[in-house]
Amino acid sequence: MHFSIQAIVGIVILLLFFASAISLYFALGNLYTAPLVLVALINVEAVVFLVFLITRGVIGPLNSIRTVVKKVGEGDFIVRIKISSTKEMTELGESVNDMIAKLQDARAHEREVERLKTEFVSLAAHQLRTPLSSIKWTLQAFLEGDLGSLTNEQKEFISRTYASNEKMISLINDLLNLTRIEEGRYLYKPSLVQLEDVVESIVKWYQEEAKRRGIALIYKCVGKDFPKVLADEEKIRLAAQNLIDNALRYTREGGKVTVFLKHDTENIEISVQDTGIGVPDEQKQRIFERFFRAENARKVDTQGSGLGLYLAKNIVEAHGGKIWFESQENKGATFTFSIPITQ
Predict the structure, then answer these.
(1) Are 10 and 59 within one domain?
(2) DSSP letter for each residue of 10-26
(3) Neighbour tally for 137: CB within 10 Å
(4) Are 332 and 274 a contacting pair, CB within 8 Å?
(5) In the list 29, 181, 339, 341, which could disulfide-bond 321, CB 3.0-4.6 Å?
């Protein structure tokens, strides 16, 4: 049986009033003071009883609600509040349970939408990759003279078309990687990898691009005897490439990009430091979101997909590592990720 808080408080106040009336009666009658002491004790007991009721009827249930709400905030939508207390607290618990149920339904709907969206992106990407690959080989045959000689003007036109097609293929590959991440099947070739060799080869590969852009690309390996790590080499290579590619893309001519590699007893750490445009303070918290591009980055390069850092973050975390960055707008940025050493 549930009682109203107001009813309980009213009863206790009535008891206090009755005890006070008795006290006043004896005081006015100038009788023995023993009854006064008794009344005082009754008052104290009434207050203690009131505190007990408030603690049991209000504070206890509120703590239960707070615990449940905290679990909901952590993503647990199955938990429910069980309260057998005052009428008001029971109604509050039922209202919170109704809210949790609605959140659970909304979350289920959101997941279904995400699943359908992922399936659509995967299907569309697969369907587009084949014709784009055919276009690539045809354009390449033209550029290499396999289909006849071309004038300089024709070569320039086809070269621009080839570059645009390559960007489309890169975007399609990013979308396919995105769908694999969301389906939980992204890492499938783990092996013992020497990251020192991987990073060095990536830096060498990007030297020509850095030279074309007028940017100094420097590699600094701190330490020696680098241990191997258990990793999907192709994906780790992609993560490092995305960081270096971004650094070169958003660093102005005459700038510098430095790639650091170091290790301790637990992790191998790869850092890419640049003197580029940096990340605005108000947009730093979104930098690893999929499809997000900072406003200053969109002005420099209008054709980015906004998937490079998102993919890098998922690759690193899938290996049990961490990724972070430091940046100051118009002064540059340093992106770092660590991979745990295989014991």
Answers:
(1) yes
(2) HHHHHHHHHHHHHHHHH
(3) 10
(4) yes
(5) 339
